Give the backbone structure.
Amino acid sequence: GGKYLINGIFCMNGLDDNDRWDTFVTIDGSRNAKGHYFNTATGDNSDLFNNMSVIVTLAAGEKVTIEGYHNYGSNRDFSGTNSYFAGYKLIGI
């Protein structure tokens, strides 16, 4: 356990004008209030990047994941080439 910096950039491809793309940091399935970011497309076939960083306190064994939501109307996938996720344990704070 301890304090961790959770960081990520997540890309969603091919969204259209006014489509919304939300990403959330979750800890054991519960959304972290400060780990939420959203973006709205301003044209057709847009690639949206959501960049987020949050410091969280974790207990041993807790699972950190990222969830996404979009309102495109059909299935969309993260762009694996343009997305990353990292967590770093913070010492001394």
User: Anything to note?
Assistant: The CA atoms of residues 22 and 79 lie 14 Å apart.
